[in-house]
Design goal:
heterodimer, A: about 230 residues, mainly alpha, 2 domains, 2 strands, about 5% strand, B: about 290 residues, 3 domains, 11 helices, elongated, transmembrane helix (chain B), protein transmembrane transporter activity (chain B), endoplasmic reticulum (chain B), Golgi to ER traffic protein 2 (chain B), membrane (chain B)
């Protein structure tokens, strides 16, 4: 396999990995940070959350009526811990904001820009040849082999009288088109798995059935129901 | 000291009352209740007197209705006169709707006192001023049942996922396999499938399959919308709602929102087609390598 294809697959895998683990980034960064202050703040926050969880579980196991004093004492501890947790979270966020900014820059330089450069410089590299040149029409062969730039250049070549497919010996799939197709297929597979297997079912809304129909009044009944002047008086 | 018991006290009071009634005190008690004593502060108006007030009220109400009717008739006449006047003026001085829009925008900025009024509020107010008297079906607002809409979206996405899975696994993948395997050409020839599995006919067969699949998908979509009583124009996304804010008359297209919804539906179909094309390209590579 061509090294370009291997690198492209590597970049795609890393991007997907970062996308799937986006919920854990903050925790990993705070745990593995080189700055001691951030590590200590993160450790302190974890302890507070653990303590709060333990007291909350204790409170749930105890009856509020039977052990009122203990229950209210725990409740006060929980509300105090909530405040401490909020303060600790804010302090951690402040301390790690610079680090997050730095990591975003690192991601841009190490991942995004090289991937973009690979697509721009090596976008016309043929990943594989099509089994036959006549599988797709001429224009499609041109797009698959030369990339999406073929579309705006086609009318120009026709006007100049140049054959747009003159360099085309065997039809193949270029890296740029292949990457677009590959990411599209992965996204669709994600959608299918998520929708059919991971997503919780939405319950059917229950509509209130009106079993009693509104009785249509006859004109006589309407006349009877009309209040007379005497009744008003 | 003799304290009287409760029962004895009651007995005494009863006897006093009976003596009073015997002596003609009943009338005084009755007068007290009805407020006919000299010192009484109770109202002596009889309920029969309220009747005259009610009849007065009905007469007043009738007068009021008559006045309101008169006023509405006068109002209508005034409005018709104003309309005639404006029509005359328009004929004499034809109004450019674009100019009017810019005038309205300028007025809006002056009213707000800000240099950059909100885009959506501007469009909405423009629609109100230009849309008076030209109520389009899209401008009528019906309450949307959110639970029903969520359930419909869930069913729609489910249907889409199953549809794509069936197309890929049942039709496209086997077809690509048969087309790209030269060893299977003999097998295809035996069963007269050579026309279908010939590489020259691949794109035509693929396109025909896509047309049939899209038609089936669209039919299912319409059935789902009908089953859940979902109107795609009412439940359109933000883009279509934004298009719907453009007042009628600015662009030479009727029912802009409906057309936007139709375009979005076709874009959805186009996206499905491109997904299948991408799958074909990737699978051709995988099958030809392995």
């Amino acid at each position: 396999m061509h090294w370009v294809v291997i690198f492209a697959l590597l970049f795609v895998s890393i991007n997907k990995f970062l996308q799937y683990t986006s919920n854990y980034h903050e925790r990993w960064v705070s745990k593995l940070s080189l700055v001691k202050e951030i590590r200590d703040l993160a450790e302190n926050l974890r302890k507070l959350i653990k303590e709060r969880k333990a007291i909350y579980e204790e409170n749930r196991a105890v009856s509020a009526q039977d052990n009122y004093a203990r229950w209210t004492k725990n409740n006060r501890k929980i509300s105090k811990l909530d405040k401490d947790i909020e303060q600790s979270k804010a302090a951690l966020k402040n301390a790690s904001s610079k680090q997050e900014h730095l990591l975003k820059r690192v991601k841009l330089i190490a991942l995004t820009l090289p991937f973009l450069a690979l697509k721009l410089l090596k976008g016309k590299t043929i990943v594989y040849d099509l089994p036959a040149n006549d599988m797709f029409p001429m224009i499609m062969n041109g797009i698959l082999t030369k990339g999406l730039l073929y579309i705006p250049l086609l009318p120009l070549n026709i006007v100049r009288g140049v054959d747009p497919n003159k360099d085309l010996v065997t039809a193949g799939v270029s890296l740029s088109v292949w990457l677009m197709g590959f990411t599209k297929v992965i996204d669709t597979v994600e959608f299918i798995i998520n929708q059919l297997f991971l997503m919780p079912a939405v319950p059917e809304p229950k509509h209130e059935k009106n079993t009693t129909k509104e009785k249509e009044l006859e004109p006589k009944e309407i006349e009877e129901l009309k209040t007379t002047e005497a009744e008003l008086d | 000291m003799s304290e009287l018991s409760e029962a004895e006290k009651r007995q005494l009071l009863r006897e006093r009352r009976q003596r009073k009634f015997k002596n003609g005190g009943a009338s005084s008690r009755l007068n007290q209740i009805t407020g006919q004593n000299k010192d009484s502060q109770l109202s002596t108006e009889s309920p029969l007197d309220v009747q005259t007030a009610a009849t007065k009220n009905t007469i007043e109400m009738d007068d009021l209705f008559a006045n309101v009717k008169k006023a509405s008739v006068e109002n209508k006449a005034k409005q018709a006169a104003i309309k005639k006047k404006t029509e005359k003026e328009q004929i004499q001085n034809p109004v450019n709707p674009e100019l009017e829009m810019y005038k309205h925008l300028a007025e809006k900025t002056q009213d707000d006192g800000s240099s950059t009024p909100e885009f959506f509020s501007m469009l909405q107010s423009m629609q109100q001023s230009f849309g008076e008297g030209t109520a389009t079906p899209s401008s009528q607002v019906f309450p949307v049942d959110q639970a029903n809409l969520d359930y419909y979206n869930y069913k729609l996405n489910n249907m889409k996922a199953v549809f794509i899975l069936i197309k890929w696994l049942v039709f496209l993948l086997p077809y690509i396999y048969f087309v790209t395997r030269p060893k299977l050409q003999q097998f295809n020839h035996q069963f007269s499938l050579s026309a279908l599995t010939d590489s020259r006919n691949f794109f035509m067969v693929f396109l025909s399959f896509e047309i049939v699949a899209m038609s089936a998908y669209l039919q299912k979509l319409k059935g789902l919308q009908k089953g859940h009583k979902i109107d795609p124009i009412q439940n359109a996304g933000k883009f279509a709602n934004l298009i719907g804010l453009i007042p009628e008359g600015i662009l030479p297209i009727n029912n802009l929102k409906g057309k936007a919804v139709l375009c979005l539906q076709h874009l959805d179909l186009l996206s499905l087609f491109l997904t299948d094309l991408a799958f074909v390209i990737i699978m051709i590579g995988i099958v030809s390598v392995f």
